[in-house]
Amino acid sequence: MRVQPLSRFWRFVERNYGRQSLQTALESLSDVLVRTLLVAEAVLQSTPAAQGLRRSRLPKCFQLLGVDLTLNTSFQPVVTEVNGQPSFYRSPRVEDEPTNRLKQRVLADALSLLFGARTVADELAEAIDEVFENLGIMGLSCQISHDLCLSREDLVFLMDTRRESVQTGGFQQLYPTYKSGQYKTFIDELEQLHMGTLEGGGGATEDMQRSGSQHGTADMHPIVVALQRHFNRHVADDNYSDLEPEPSDVWKGTNSSSVQQSEKQEDDLLSGNQDFYAWSQHPSTMPYLARIVTEPSVRLQPAFKPQRTEYFANVSYDLVLVKVWGLAQHCGSQVRVDDKYGPARPANYTLGVGENKVVLYVMDGGQPDPWVVNAYTLLIRRMPLADDGVVFSPATQHQVCSLKQVECEMQVAPGEPCGLYSETSVDWPSYLEKTARLPVCKDGSSQGRWMVPCEKCAAKESCYWKEARWQPYQCRYVNLPQRTLARCMAGKKLLFIGDSTNRGMMHYVMERLNGSLQHWDKTHDLRVYANLNRGETAVAFAYCGPNIWKSRNKKRVAVPTPELGMLARALALTQSKPLQNNSNTVLIVGGVHWLATQHLYMLVKALRGDHLQGIKLIIKTLGAGFHQPVEGIHCLSMNEQKKLMMQNLWLAEFARHYDIDVIDTFNITVARYKDFLQGKCACHFHKVVPVQAPKNRPPGKPPPPPSYHVEGDINAVYSEILLNRICAKYAEDS
Question: Kind and range of the H or E element at 670?
Fold first, then answer.
């Protein structure tokens, strides 16, 4: 049988059926080949053998494929076979010499395609900068607000793709091209099938963790298509399909539209309620509300009266968000929520476990500046999941229940179970004895889960949550006695850089170290506490949050911050001693969502420059929060929460590479994300409260100085892990 070149067949089609038929056949052929290869990729990734292998493991390993197709009378191709070992055997027959030359050209072009030396980094960097406004780079500039953060492997992939595009030789590039936007829906469907296969096998989380440093086709598709359009804009401008999104729309989020829709609904709701009563014009009614409205409806006590300005209410544990607004009696008054500059419309308010204070300000709307004429206070107490008054009895038979994700609607790790499930058949005291025999953990990020005794694992309300403990699988953390902690901390200086969650850890450490907390505040500045542990320990805090980012030419860039130097100078002034370049100096860095690898890199670089590379450096990783739609607070979608989990993995991996100790708070907090305490962000798991002074003080004796206590079981758990890492030798000896 004589083999004919494909080009001869195409000339036959054009000559006998016309150019339109040829164009249809070529486009259909390209389409079926691309879809076949996309399906093959998805199938291969779903096989057990493929799980655990990264695409970057053999980045220059490729395979030539021979594809057999059949075309019907409408020139629609059907793949009949894919040959993984196409023959390049050189035929000795004279009549096959053209085919031999063709095979030689294919091999030569393949080698040139894969190993060409053309430099494309500069043009790719310029294209990324020009096309994309919200892409981050891991280790350089990566925030949760970015639509995607490219890893080193992603950048290598993009450079390889560009290099192959400009040295195709006799090959024709089928994907990606500037027309490949048509495959977006198809790729998304394959991704859903792939994730469903992994979830069914229980390995989705592990798969995401293993491949976390490189994004798959579904994530990279909009990027490579947009880049192809940029590089081929002289060709593509006249050929965009109406179905293909513009490059600027590829990564457009839904937050702005959802916020606008939410605001419209709130305005409609407010205007609708105003129809139920008539405004007054009498001056005496200006300071008063006609109604206080909540959604869902909350029973206020006592019953509302315009002249009464303080109310309280109890709500269930499951109510984490309430919409609050007030209706003024006077037509010239406005009602604002939480602040005199707050929204003059219904506003969502997060309800942390315990007491939440909501203030409605009645404003004189006729003044050029906000003028408060009255204020109404609502104290809403969100009940804990279990009754605080119920006493746990170890002698009673209980189920020992395990928890990784408390709610299925907040299932950031699809492959992990949600809800409580029974893990062991032993009783709670026996379980505690078993875990007490485990070795002490040698890091602060050992994988674990929450363990809690319950009457029934199927009913979370039956659990004794005060007994809940975070338990790693292979080791344990210890609660160091106060005296042991004092010996460990003698001579140490603790430097905390971070946001309010890091500050909460600091206050807990101060209380544990001193036995009480005498001083605290919600500082967003610099604070130094130099007289802890009988003057032998100093603690300093510098607030550092998302404002580390500054705008420059509409691009987000990281600007090195002076917090480290500020802390060093402040401690030197108070102690008259410089920081020591050893483990007596401990730097703890942490944030809810803003902390990224570039911040760690900047800190490592700053420490080396200040000859402090020998200190103990610890990071508190990311945490749960920002999951409720609240005024002025960014609310993360479910996909963004999953992306946050991956960012947390990258952050921890980056830290370990630089020998930074990791306190992994993400899994600890996400598992119990509804247990947040008061605060708009729903990210605080601590609360500082005053300690009541004893009432039986002897006459004539002056009152003791005010004392405070840090509440929050979850904050206590990861703060104790921090103490385990600072005092690792003492923990192991215990």
Answer: helix 666-670
